[in-house]
Amino acid sequence: MPRFYFDFQTDSLRLDDEEGFEWESLETGRREALRTLGEIAKEALSKGNEQTLNASIRDVDGRVAYTATVTVTGTWHQASIEPVSRPRERG
After folding, report:
1. How far is residue 55 CA from its own chain's centroid?
2. Which of left, alpha, beta for 63 (phi over 0: left; psi -120 to 50: alpha)?
3. Distance between CA atoms of 44 and 69, rounded to whole angstroms?
4. Which of the chain's ends, N or C, has fewer CB atoms near its CB within 10 Å?
């Protein structure tokens, strides 16, 4: 099986894979990259209202074979926030 390396980068962090993964194909690596980015994106907004996440897959020769980028943006819209109504007490 071919070995691929999965690198990850955010606005403030870069992690380069030194061990690699043996995937049946680059398509398997692509699916894994997208799955991982999806999981990370779920947590990204807890760190700020905008995060850019990148995943790259390199082959054994260091050539980038695939790159995926996800930008997560959260925006408050004050006019659309309604006060929470309290249930009436029974008496």
Report:
1. 8
2. beta
3. 13
4. C
* Residue linked to tokens 């991982």: 36
The pTM assigned to this predicted structure is 0.70
Q: What would the two tokens of residue 71 be?
A: 């930008």
Residue spans of alpha helices (H) in the chain: 26-44
Please name every residue paired with 3 in a beta bridge, in sequence order, or none if there are none.
Answer: 22
Q: Which residues 6+ apart lie within 8 Å of 1 measured at CB?
A: 22, 23, 24
Secondary element (H or E) of residue 55? strand 50-58
Q: Judge whether residue 18 has pLDDT over 90.
A: yes
Judge whether 44 and 68 are in contact, CB under 8 Å. no
By 3-state DSSP, what share of the chain in percent is helix, strand and coil, each rounded to 5? 25, 35, 40
Length, in residues, of the chain: 91
